[in-house]
Write a structure and sequence with these properties.
The chain is an alpha+beta fold. It has helices at about 10-30, 35-55, 65-75, 80-85, 120-135; strands at about 95-105, 110, 115, 145-150. Strands 1, 2, 3 and 4 form a four-stranded antiparallel β-sheet that branches.
Length: about 160
């Protein structure tokens, strides 16, 4: 059956699903930090290159092996894949993320950060608990809360 033989409502549904997926991917990309985007780009492009070079009919390696192959290939071309292509300085601190439940202060018109959590699940659980037990301000207005991720990357700069 050719695509033109499909019923119009099905074609419309499939087009909507394609658009929904594209919008979700764009929203995820926009939520990434610059460093996360650079890492994803380097790994995705080199992963594609490695996949195109994979011999037809051969078994696909395990994820850990694929990851090693991609990172190693990026390191071979640091000018093309600068984020994965350079080794981290041995004394650099590893990047980390932590999550906070922020509360909107309507009087100050700003978000107030809360205590940090080690995982997204912990922060979302805390927000759910707060929303359940403390849904309103003292004056009766609903409390606005959000979960935010704080990502920190340490980079050692060259001596000048």
């Amino acid at each position: 059956m050719a695509a033109t033989d499909l019923p119009a409502p099905l074609i419309s549904y499939l087009e909507k699903r394609d658009n929904d997926r594209a919008e979700a991917a764009a929203a995820l990309w926009a939520a990434l930090t610059d460093r996360e985007r650079a890492l994803v780009k380097d790994a995705a492009v080199m992963g594609y290159v490695q996949g195109m070079q994979h011999p037809s009919g051969e078994r696909i390696p395990k994820d850990s092996r694929i990851t090693y192959i991609v990172v190693d290939a990026c390191r071979a071309f640091p000018d093309l894949y600068p984020t994965l292509g350079v080794a981290a300085a041995p004394d650099a601190r590893p990047a980390y993320s932590r999550w906070r439940v922020e509360t909107r202060d309507p009087d100050a018109d700003e978000w107030a950060p809360g205590m940090p959590f080690g995982s997204s699940d912990e922060a979302h659980a805390r927000r759910a608990l707060l929303d359940t037990h403390h849904p309103k301000c003292r004056d009766g207005r609903p409390v606005e809360r959000r979960v935010v991720r704080e990502t920190t990357t340490w980079t050692i700069e060259e001596t000048r």
